[in-house]
Amino acid sequence: DYHDIRFLQTGGYILQAYHQIFMDLSNLIENGSDNALVQQLVIQEFNVDGDVIFEWAASEHLNIADYTNLNLSDPEIIWMHGNSIEIDWDENLIISNRVSSEVLKINRTTGEVIWIWGGPLNEFSITGDSLGGFSKQHDVRRLNNGNILMFDNGTEHNPQISRVLEYAINEEEKTVDLVWEYIHPNELSSVAMGSSQRLPNGNTLINWGLVNNQGATITE
To answer: Half-sphere exposure of residue 102, counting CA atoms within 13 Å on the CB side?
Structure first.
């Protein structure tokens, strides 16, 4: 999948893909299909020779029945829409899942889900954010100061508005505090795409993604 790829100093790389599987959901949820076609997210790491040395598949570590925000009675279900991969400072992976407005940290050796932030399985308490958190986000990155930067499309905010957010995160206490945000002066609302990048001089470069009736909007 084209959303992200991380090239490694070893010559290897990490990418994301999708795998369609059939699942029997009839015993998990009311009106669930006994042969639902589910699109699941797969993260793969390859070495310099092109061999797969790590693979993470959503169905092996999560229970789709817990995703109560999805319509699990549909015969075809997009379980996850991954849009960024971040190698954290402890070498584990931080994954952004736009469909459920969630960020997952996964163990790069075992595939175990270390924590989930946002969405129906949220484990964190959020402070300092008047909108209560992010919605349909993109480009989740760890900053040098330890904080998390992301582009918040804000699809389900009321009012609908896009922002760039910087959160201070305490992974042990499971708390996040919004320490900085930026909203475009025209209060743009991005329905898709978007990114934010903290530059070496401390500035932030923002791509506002797909804004209806406008071309590209880039802000530093």
So the answer is: 22
